[in-house]
Amino acid sequence: MWSPGKIIPTNLITGFLGTGKTTAIGSLLQARPQGQRWSILINEYGLVSIDHALLDSSEPLVQVEELSGGCFCCSLSIALPGMLTRFIHHTKPDRLFVELTGAGHPAGVIDLLRSERFSDVIDLRTTICLVNPRDCDDQSITSSAAFEDQIQLSDVVAINFTDVSSPAMIEVAERKVGECDPPKLLVVRTQHGIIDPAWLDLTGTVFRTPLHCQAHTITDPHRPSDRADGVSERGLSITSSPQPGLPRRHESEGLGVVSCGWVFSSKDSFDRDQLLDLLGGLLWIDQPAGAIRLKGVFHCGQQWLSINRSTNQTSVQSTTYRRDSRIEVILLGSRPDWKSFESRLLGCLQQE
After folding, report:
1. CB contact at 8 A, 95 and 8
2. Which of 160, 326, 332, 338 has the most CB atoms lying inside 10 A of its own CB?
3. Is 219 inside a domain boundary?
């Protein structure tokens, strides 16, 4: 257990939208040494918190906190130092993980973790970036400053989804990573976000210079614009319980990234088959291009399910989360017809 004067081994987990960051942290939790306290601070771009539900655990030695509604690198940068300090003092971790939103630029976060303010608390070790090979062949993504510097500033790059990516795509990703200077400590192929715990403490980390120093600074922030049927929701607690059949919708957008999340009453129950049919395709969003990341937890009769979808694959599993049903979708590009999709979600509710 941490106490003042102890240095906390810390890892930053980065990667673009839908690369499997939260899944990777979940896999690491399976290898957590017995008796160690692990704390996970998650940055969620959208306004509806999802990742804490996907990592929901009854294990008291694992604490998860989520800061949503923007990026640690810009719109939430003022709040981050104080929140990080409080989080450490409250959870007293033996190891700390910081997961940056897929739309975020890591430079400012790395600077903070290495700053004098945290020099007697945090030992920033390996920064790990997960990469989807498909992203490396998509100009709308490769032109993103955040995407380029997530790779540039990492010590280890884990090329994920290699089980569902073509050899040619994987080779393109490896060539792109190989162009980085300084070179990476490790470039590996992986599946299902599996990270070897040995990568967390590799020696030989060096200072890496970002390619886009001014990207996503406090003067160039994401600007979430949350709405619920056209009415501003800013300042309203998203955790307040909605009425059955009347979900609360929260939209945000900025710098080419759009997101929308819904929170349903815990009493709302979804038809499992209809829901999976709806979420199993991408045509429902009418989005011809751009990355997509969809995450949600749903009450389906006697089951509670977590659903996690990237452009490559969808995973569905049981969850211990019970507070409410919720979903969030993040896209690159223009804002689609969220109301239409909401109607389809409502159509999946079981009728009493």
Report:
1. yes
2. 160
3. no
Tokens 């990237």 correspond to 310
- Weakest-pLDDT range from 9-18, 217-226, 238-247: 217-226
DSSP assignment letter at 172:
H
Q: According to the model, what pLDDT value does residue 240 have?
A: 62
- For residue 131, the surrounding DSSP H or E stretch is strand 122-131
Q: How many domains does one find in the chain?
A: 2
Two structure tokens written together for 76: 């939430």
How open is the CA angle 252-254-259, to the nearest 5 degrees? 35
254 and 194, same domain (yes or no): no
Tokens of 318: 């049981």
- Domain identity same for 66 and 142: yes
Q: Token pair for residue 12?
A: 């930053």
Claim to verify: residue 285 and residue 196 sit in the same structural domain = no
What is residue 127's DSSP assignment? Answer: E
3-state secondary structure of 225: coil
Q: CA angle, corner 315, sides to 326 and 171, nearest 5?
A: 125
The count of other CB atoms within 10 Å of the CB of residue 217 is 14
* Distance, CA of 163 to CA of 131 (rounded, Å): 13
C-alpha–C-alpha distance, residues 83 and 67, integer Å: 9
Neighbour tally for 77: CB within 10 Å: 18
- Residue 221's SS3 state is coil
Of 289 and 162, the structure prediction assigns the larger pLDDT to 162
